[in-house]
Hints:
Layout: H1 9-12, E1 19-20, H2 23-34, H3 37-55, H4 61-68, H5 72-100, H6 102-119, H7 125-153, H8 158-187, H9 190-196, H10 198-216, E2 224-225, H11 241-270, H12 275-301, H13 307-326, H14 332-356, H15 361-393, H16 397-417
Amino acid sequence: MSGSAPDPAPVLVDAEAGGRPSAAGAAARRALLAHPALLLAGIVLASLNMRAALASVAPLVGEISASFGLSAAASSLVTSVPVFFLGAGAAVAPWLGRRFGAERVLFAALLLLGAGVLARVLPSVYALYGGGVLVGTAIALLNVLMPGLIKRDFPDRAAAMTSVYTGAMIAGATVAAAAAVPLEKALGGGWEASLGFWSLLAAVAALAWLPQVLIARGRTGHAVRAVPAGGALPVSVWRSALAWQVTLFMGLQSLWTYVLIAWMPTIFVDHGMDRSTAGVVFAFNNLVQVAGAFVVPLLAGRMRSQRPLVVLVTTMVAAGYAGLMVAPVEGAWLWSALLGVGQGGAVGLALTLIVLRSGDAVTAAGLSGMAQTVGYLLAAGGPLAAGALHQATGSWTAPICVVLGVCAAALAVGLLAARNRTV
């Protein structure tokens, strides 16, 4: 290379801290990026874990409730507790990343996830809920730190890498949901063996992250503060209108997704569909999400403004929900497909907007923490509110009408968030 060497800080800057690495750390990072297969494997394996531990529970809630003698309200907490801690855990993720480094926190999150999965199979209802707390917190750490890490290590391919990890995340959820009951039968150990199996996936992903942790030792604790070009310090995302628009889009699309996760099979059953068929349609909904999650971020990365994609995904979700209201059984497969592609596309777009609206890796980490803290806390109330409204009215019409309002609000803030600007 001729001329003076370029400053590596724009690429190698610590996503979580805005720090310039030591010379040894910078050299190690460049060596790893020169052979990115190991890094890519770590990202994919971590992403497979980001929904599997949640999706594997839903098909087994009946058996879990019967095992502990749980009421309907207590049973709903089996799935809602981890979702709440997706938001609560996201609040501390940026601080942990700054304190210990993204690689170490991601590695620890995978170990925590495996421990939480195993805790849920202990013969104690307290361990069941406590394990849910650990699972939700661990997934929150993965959720928040991954966009900043991708922005740092793949600055020119951020949208494509977001597509890869979002697709892997939803693929993990699809496989976990589909395999829950077959694993229960194959392992011969009841629901405990089926749930506990997914701790192995977390262990494999943690092993894949070990090289990253070792490389981070050459950087964490030996950094100097890096000031962005122009001499200005990073802005606070909490004071940015654009950051709030991205955050609200993240939260609203999460809300409509978790309402479906909690109640979609029940809506079908309440309208006369048998439980086994409802389960198959629900699994199909999860499967087709992979298509939207993979394609939409790729398209978003090639567009200056992502407004057409916002319109597309919100319209598909709204049409699917409207179909559930007017002809749930007759058009079940169509509504499931529309909702699935729209859901997958929406979450992929929300995560891509975090990266595209961020001017650098530091901002991406901060915006990711903000969007997922507020977003998942907002989404956690969706399933409970929908269930309460259904119980009060005796019908699914009112809850679906409210979610259609959520779709309209997501369209409005999404159009603002999709403008070609950065925080």
